[in-house]
């Protein structure tokens, strides 16, 4: 089966064609997620058409169009349930009807981190392991869990994916979910500027003159010994470790996979983060395996294909 896969990220829309469980062509375009999805659907469709044309394929040779979404999705109705400041008009769009009208194909849509976990489980860092947690570190913090070979979804689609909204600081800042002090509000890219500006070291730090703050800049300056960057890095590692320890206690994984844009620079922090996690996790049975994902941006695309096969076995 051929799956058309689109990963609706906050900063990039990644598009791929997956055939027989392999991404055979992929590209990406800038995401205008703050402007809503309805204004970008036509551009996404044009890019999909270009991908298919480059492979000499037509829509009718494909089985499913799949979308990942950075929020809560109702699998029963194929509708987006909740958004967090990205693609905020999506709950009002009947994406199944759009897919049918534009391509004549059924739609499969799921949460992006859950699909990245499915992809890593099938073809990446989770192969052969049936008790897994995946954490994406990036613009936000995404999580997902597989327990005894079952990808957790839950009756409302929430199970496993709200680890970024575990409270790690009850006196912390307001999160975009409505709670305060969530891990995501304490140590994700969108919260970085607020956390940095509150540090006394910020005024004298080169970080103050950057156009935008991200973890690449923080790790780069931390390597140079900048006090503000070192404090931010220590804070982020403590928050990520606290969240991951909570995930370990909640879902009893044998392996935790780190993914997302920030994990691409894991060389700067992996050993330190792993040490903090393992020294705080209560696992009398042994030690959780902490690894970095193998598939990068392809993970969610492969996960979409795996989910499409599961939901539409008649097409596989
Ligand atoms: Zn939150």
Describe the structure.
- Helices cover 33% and strands 21% of the residues.
- It is of the alpha/beta class.
- The strands form three sheets. It has a five-stranded mixed beta sheet with strand order 3-2-1-4-7, sandwiched between helices.
- Helix 6 packs across helix 7.
- The structure holds zinc ion.
- The site of zinc ion has 7 residues, from helix 4.
Task: Itemize the secondary structure elements and their pairings.
Layout: E1 2-8, E2 12-19, E3 22-30, H1 41-54, E4 64-69, E5 72-74, E6 79-82, H2 95-103, E7 107-111, H3 112-123, E8 132-137, E9 141-147, E10 150-151, H4 183-186, H5 192-197, H6 215-223, H7 227-251, E11 255-259, H8 270-280, E12 289-292, H9 298-311
Parallel strand pairs: 1-4, 4-7, 8-11, 11-12
Antiparallel strand pairs: 1-2, 2-3, 5-6, 8-9, 9-10
Bound molecules: zinc ion.
Count every beta strand, where a strand is a DSSP E run of 2 or more residues.
Answer: 12
What percentage of the residues does DSSP assign to strands (E)? 15-25%
* Strand neighbour order, sheet with most strands: 3-2-1-4-7
How far apart lie the N and C ends?
5 Å
What is the mean pLDDT?
94
Any ligands, ions or cofactors bound here, and which?
zinc ion
Low-confidence stretches: none
Largest sheet: 5 strands, mixed
DSSP summary: helix tally: 9
Helical coverage, percent range: 25-40%
SSE pattern, N- to C-terminal: EEEHEEEHEHEEEHHHHEHEH
- What best-fitting shape do the alpha-carbon axes yield? globular
